[in-house]
Amino acid sequence: MTPPPARRRRTGANGAPAPSLPRRGAVRRAQMITTYGVGSLIAVDHESFVVSGLDGADEHWRSDESPRISERRLARLLEVDYFRLPPASEDTSKDGVRVRRFPIMHSCPECGELRRWHQFNPPPGRSQCGACGSDLVPSRFVIACEAGHLDEFPYWHWVHRSSAGGTSTAGQCGGTLTLRSSGRSSSLRSIIVSCTCGVPEVSMEGSFRRNALKDLGLRCRGTRPWLGTSVPADSCRLSARTLQRGSSSVWQPVLKSALSIPPWSDGRADPLDEHWAQLRELDGRDAVKMCLDFVFKNKPPVPVDEVMALLAAEREEDPEGDGTPSFDRRYLALRHKEYERLRAGNDERERSHKEQFVCETPLGDPAPLVPLGVTGPMLVKKLREVRALKAFTRLADPDSTTEGKEAALSASPLSWLPAMEVRGEGVFLRLDEDRLEAWAGSAPVVARAERIRAAHERLLRQRATEPDLAPPSPAGARMILLHTLAHVLITQWSLDAGYPAAALRERLYADEGMAGILVYTATSDSAGSLGGLVAQGEPARLADAVRGAVHRSAWCSSDPLCIESEASGTAGTNLAACHACVMLPETSCEHNNTLLDRALLVGTPEEPSIGFFASLLA
Residue 579: its pLDDT value, please? Predict the structure, then answer.
């Protein structure tokens, strides 16, 4: 990580490369997508920085340190040409990722002054008070709004609120702010802010109230520190809220992913990525051939007939219906195509060694799965998943697709997005459609699923800038059952096959016409490709795993409170689900441990019949 000075020259004399900027720590490459992506805050020793945006991509991410990766289906969904890996770790990176100091407000634990960082006159390359030499402490508090803006906490307005009413210009009193702790407790009441102008000192108690800043007459200024001071602020009149600098609510990634499936998974079409948008607009084989001959000087890397087949395959993923489909519909169409390919399989013997998707039917007799209502197991011996950072949110649901909630990674449109690729293996299974339909149509099941769906839609409306445009909840009996089953299977396989639960990940196919689960390795190390997970997909072993998972989920150490819960999780978006039974590490779950209910697996003491697998417990 390298924070840029206020003004930086990229080249030295005679165009020579400029000296490397000072480093401020290192993070893993994958964390630049999931934890420390653009716009997030990162603590390095006793300093704090915000990861810079992607404007001027060739300057911020060196092309030799952030190679391109291709996934045409996902690139089309996100309307970019390609993806790029974040720079590698400190051992191999010469440049790294740019960061900017944030928050700017710091305090000195020795003299107690609270002011902007540069006003302490720190020594070059050090974050120390120029007067007493103590290490400066970045402000513990920042403010953010639901549109993704981030700003300094208004300490001056907070301490002068009784005399200035929140309307005066900060600092006009001529005094110096100080910050100290009374030491009486660890609560906000013990953090005291004062000003040498003589106004009464105040504590930070109450600063986290939803309307605390609104009551001061303050609104969000629309600042975006990750884009730099040269980028004008967005016009924003939302109410900002106070947050702890290290809170997970300060930055939440909006990740979208896709599996590489035929005809794209052998990599042959990758050289066409830069020209694909142009090829897509052409009409007819002759126009495509002319374009290829011109671009590649009569030596196209892919035959024209194959390019036409790829264009036809891409059009097949267009959702049905009139008009321009929404992002949600296009993303669901992408899942439908994956579901079809997982059901159909892709035999390794018929493919080249470059094939990145190998999915085969197990050799064992599927009869043990029939009484369980499980069907169609497939052994996914090779898969590749690309996860792209589309945007990020603050104070919002990361699964929300409401455009007003997403903060951009750059001030101008990009032709690429940061992404990671994972190669591994997995097991795919489906539930018997007839049995599932009969179960999902029963009144007690519908009523229980409706409670979760209503709570989730209420949460989405609360978090949406425009409640009427909030996306519908995907929660239904089918989806909640599949989601909970995936969680208990991951837990079971972490015990049977020796995988840590964080090394496994779910991918749900729950919609009309789909009722499947893919559990796959979510790491790119050796644990992802040794065959240990694929071996669990043989019918006999899979039947034992399902039985074991159901029996384990029939009892929770928090029962009866857990199974009798009227609402749990964020805003009541779970029912019978807690960390003692079905919840997983957040990296393993597509829905952030929401929309779960093990009662739909095993039933409740009052209504055992609502459990899809209740017969296994009889």
Answer: 92
